[in-house]
From TrEMBL:
Introduces a single-strand break via transesterification at a target site in duplex DNA. Releases the supercoiling and torsional tension of DNA introduced during the DNA replication and transcription by transiently cleaving and rejoining one strand of the DNA duplex. The scissile phosphodiester is attacked by the catalytic tyrosine of the enzyme, resulting in the formation of a DNA-(5'-phosphotyrosyl)-enzyme intermediate and the expulsion of a 3'-OH DNA strand. One of its GO terms (molecular function) is DNA topoisomerase type I (single strand cut, ATP-independent) activity. PANTHER family: DNA TOPOISOMERASE 3-BETA-1, PROKARYOTIC DNA TOPOISOMERASE. InterPro entries: Topo_IA, Topo_IA_cen, Topo_IA_cen_sub1, Topo_IA_cen_sub3, Topo_IA_core_domain, Topo_IA_DNA-bd_dom, Zn_ribbon_TOP3B. It comes from Biomphalaria pfeifferi (Bloodfluke planorb). Its EC number is 5.6.2.1. It catalyses: ATP-independent breakage of single-stranded DNA, followed by passage and rejoining. This is DNA topoisomerase. Pfam families: Topoisom_bac (PF01131), Zn_ribbon_TOP3B (PF23546).
Length: 511
């Protein structure tokens, strides 16, 4: 067992800190309040007294630090008086905190940790008034946190229960040798492009692979084995099962990692063209047409998947109200389907009843003008899960399309405006549609320029609709929308009627 007093006696005659150690032995040592015996090896401790003349420069710096740190761990606490002053300048409230040292304690042997003179504040009385000498307004920008030092990384690993005193240095050496990080002045660990891409790729596919939780959990189970509280074979099989499933999932999603590697280690000439603005940095993202097509933000170093087998273009520079990303438009042409989408929401569903791969025509946002809550007309006439959504970009050859299957209904060709109203049809439950034509170009009776009614039940509207199927439509990420009856546009809200029983009557108008 380590003897603190015996180790200190060896330092009592040291020319630098011998006097302090002698007084410490006379007054009594303080036992460290933190730390535990891991059982692997004793803490780093000075074995005997040494002077600067006995060691080379670097060796002496290391010895000096280790010895002072050891002595400080058994020294009294540093005590100080902290005072906080609250004051007002005009209508603005401020506070200022200062510290006055009472007893230096362990900082006597570690002077770099002592309180500075600039931390003291003058003695003031309550309600005392002072004059303002100067007011400055300095404009600055927020800066990112500094890189972790080796000691900070070790502290974080210990905090999360990762590694031991013997294995932690090996982990740090491994990430350096594998070129995930590089050592810069100040013993700081700067991530390399390879390390950044790997972390972003893991976050994109399986965030557990870069979080400390799994490794910490495994180490906790290993500790239980050492204490005889867990079975070795069961723990081993459990860990193998977890990592086997994660490996299979990672392999299935490896294209997401390939996209990041391609974007990071390819020249800018091969990285696509600027298309839409990122909602995070407000800079233009590049549209990469090479399959799988995607958007890439050079500033944030993030990729955003897009629906495939169609054309992508900017959608009127409109922005998603949730994240400020500019919307893009996916289309398969005049005989196909078209819908806008938010690149961020498409990859990170904002609501619980949404999944990855959903455009605005499936978004359940209750008030967004692009979501199907505002543009849904009725439930699909063929599939069980879809909603017929008005395509606001299709005019003057207006159409509505199912947000699940390939059904497309063309109607009101030549109309200047088509909009979905809040009212619903009393007969079938579909939402009422308002149509406006220019004067002299209206197919409505008596050359009326406007009419409002149900697409499926209104006698005037029936001859103006045709049902088709979208050409070359291939959806990615088949997502379902919850149909729990939660207001318009969801389940039996927006377009709550399903006029399948009317399709036989309307067959003459459909091709």
């Amino acid at each position: 067992m380590l003897s603190f007093r015996g180790t200190l006696r060896q330092q009592a005659t040291h020319p630098v800190w011998g006097k302090y150690v002698t007084e410490l032995l006379q007054n009594g040592i303080e036992k460290p309040k933190k730390g535990h015996d891991a059982g692997d090896h004793p803490p780093i401790t000075p074995m005997k007294a040494a002077t600067e003349g006995e060691l080379d420069h670097d060796s002496w710096k290391l010895y000096d630090y280790i010895t002072r740190n050891f002595i400080a761990t058994v020294s009294p606490n540093c005590t100080y008086l902290q005072t906080t002053i609250y004051f007002e300048i005009g209508s603005e409230k401020f506070s200022c905190t200062g510290k006055v040292q009472v007893d230096p304690g362990f900082t006597t042997i570690m002077p770099w940790m002592q309180l500075g003179d600039d931390e003291e504040i003058p003695s003031l009385k309550k309600d005392e008034k002072l004059s303002v000498e100067e007011v400055k307004l300095i404009e600055k920008q927020t800066s990112p946190p500094d890189y972790l030092t080796e000691s900070e990384l070790i502290s974080l690993m210990e905090k999360h229960g990762i590694g031991t005193d013997a294995s932690i240095p090996v982990h740090i050496n491994n990430i350096c040798e594998r070129n995930y990080v590089s050592i810069i002045p100040g013993r700081k660990l700067k991530p390399t492009p390879l390390g950044i891409v790997l972390v972003h790729g893991y976050q994109k596919i399986d965030v557990d692979l870069v979080l400390p939780t799994i490794r910490s959990s495994v180490e906790q189970q290993l500790a239980l084995i050492a204490l005889g509280k867990a079975d070795f074979l069961e723990v081993k099989q459990h860990a193998i099962d977890i990592f086997h499933r994660k490996f299979r999932y990672f392999v299935d999603c490896i294209t997401a990692m390939d996209e990041l590697f391609e974007m990071t280690f390819s020249s800018l000439a091969d990285s696509g063209r600027p298309l839409s603005r990122c909602g995070k940095c407000r800079r233009y993202m590049k549209f990469v047409q090479a399959k799988p097509s995607r958007l890439y933000c050079c500033s944030c170093d993030e990729t955003f998947s897009l629906p495939q087998n169609g054309n992508i273009k900017l959608y009127k520079e409109l922005k998603c109200p949730l994240d400020e990303f500019e919307l893009v438009l996916w289309t398969t042409g005049a005989k196909g389907k078209t819908y806008p989408l938010c690149p961020y929401c498409y990859n990170n569903p904002p609501f619980n009843d949404m999944r990855k791969g959903m455009g605005c025509n499936e978004c359940t946002h209750p008030t967004c003008s692009h979501a199907f809550a505002q543009n849904g007309v009725s439930e699909c006439v063929e599939c069980d899960n879809g909603v017929l959504v008005l395509d606001l970009t299709s005019g003057p050859k207006w159409r509505m399309a199912c947000n699940k299957c390939s059904v497309v209904i063309h109607f009101f060709e030549g109309a200047s405006k088509v909009s979905v109203k809040d009212e619903s049809c009393d007969e079938c439950g579909a939402n009422v549609v308002e149509v406006a034509f220019k004067e002299g170009k209206s197919p409505l009776p008596e050359s009326s320029s406007e009419h409002t009614g149900c697409v499926f039940c209104d006698a005037i509207f029936k001859p103006l609709i045709e049902k088709h199927h979208a050409v070359a439509l291939r959806r990615t990420g088949g997502a379902r929308v919850s149909r729990g009856g939660r207001g318009r546009g969801r389940g039996r809200g927006r377009g709550r009627g399903k006029p399948k029983d009317k399709m036989a009557q309307l067959a003459a108008y459909f091709v």
